[in-house]
Design a protein that fits this description.
Blueprint (H helix, E strand, L loop, with lengths): L2 H9 L1 E4 L7 E4 L1 H5 L1 H15 L6 E5 L2 H13 L2 E7 L7 E8 L2 E8 L8 E9 L3 H13 L2 E10 L5 H7 L4 E6 L4
Parallel strand pairs: 3-4, 3-7, 7-8, 8-9
Antiparallel strand pairs: 1-2, 4-6, 5-6
Helix pairs in contact: 1-3, 3-4
Subcellular location: Cytoplasm
GO cellular component, one term: cytoplasm
InterPro entries: Ade_phspho_trans (IPR005764), Adenine_PRTase (IPR050120), PRTase-like (IPR029057), PRTase_dom (IPR000836)
Amino acid sequence: MDYFSESIRQAIRTVPDWPKPGVQFRDITTVLQDRTAFRKLIDAFVHRYHGESIDAVAAVDARGFIIGSALAYELNAGLVLVRKKGKLPFDTLVEDYELEYGTASVELHKDAFKPGDRVVLVDDLIATGGTMLAASRLIRRIGADIVEVAAMIDLPELGGSAKLREEKLPIYTVCAFEGD
């Protein structure tokens, strides 16, 4: 792990037993509050994609919006919001996905991308992968190309990053938490 990744990892607060016993919640608000850590985080993503031809950053509701907006600005790319169902005002495409207890849906505007657009899909973390998989399916349905799925944190024990790789999606995460 490099210096940037380790310093960002150390800035993430772990809240034990929240929202239920046995869960180690990774709280990113401490990274956002720390101007040095937040700058390192955004810089890690910007340096990753600097020089790439990126048309848009697709940011997942809601914490992905924070990273996605700064990244889109720095890359001189468009910002597309992947929202929870019912939050977008125009014609949308909807994709359902499985949760631990039930289903949820995400949507984006039908005209969010042009076929062939090069897109970075970003969220705060990869847990079970359901939201990112649903978002990637929406992007692909429009005909855009996903350059990479990116997140601040990977929680590989929950299986999401493996599911994304099974769908042939390249992944970049700044740091991971395994068994700690």
